[in-house]
Amino acid sequence: MNVITSFKEKKQEKQMLYERKMLRELSFEKLKTKAIKHFSPFYPTYRAFPSVIEEGCIDIAIEAYLLGANYSRFGYYGEPAESVRRRCAQEEKYFIDTLFDFLCFWGNIDDGLANESLYYACEHYVVYWWTEGFERGKKRRHLKLH
To answer: How far apart are CA 91 and CA 97, in angstroms?
Structure first.
């Protein structure tokens, strides 16, 4: 007897395998240092960067990295990165807003100017990790490692 699998299950399995391969190239130390570099100026009252905030930033960075990696197939076929980023603008905006809300909640930031600069920092952070995933994914496709 044969096991019958659906197309959806097979697609999910393939996606998980690809994401695991992409995450092998990602360094936890790099994630940690980038989170501290981007957001520690907004939390000067803490002696050390709070681990809760750090973990939230790392989670969003991983999601943005994987999103960029998933969309790298369009870059492999010649589409420019900016054009590809417009394809996933909704997901990217969701990550930016989620990170901003998370940081505002844990940092008790209510100042209008601080909010605006924090939002731009969140946007830059998510775009950085999206681009990193996009470039790594494109490189893996060129090397036929996908």
So the answer is: 10
C-beta separation of 109 from 42 below 8 A: yes
CA separation, residue 123 to residues 100, 127, 146 (Å): 9, 6, 28
Model pLDDT for residues 88-97, shown as the tens digit of each residue = 999 999 999 9
**29-46 burial: b if 16+ Cβ within 10 Å, else e:** eebbebbbebbeebbeee
Distant-in-sequence, close-in-space partners of 78: CB < 8 Å, separation ≥ 6:
none
Tokens 């936890």 locate to 28
pTM for this structure?
0.88
**Beta-carbon count within 10 A of 21 CB:** 14
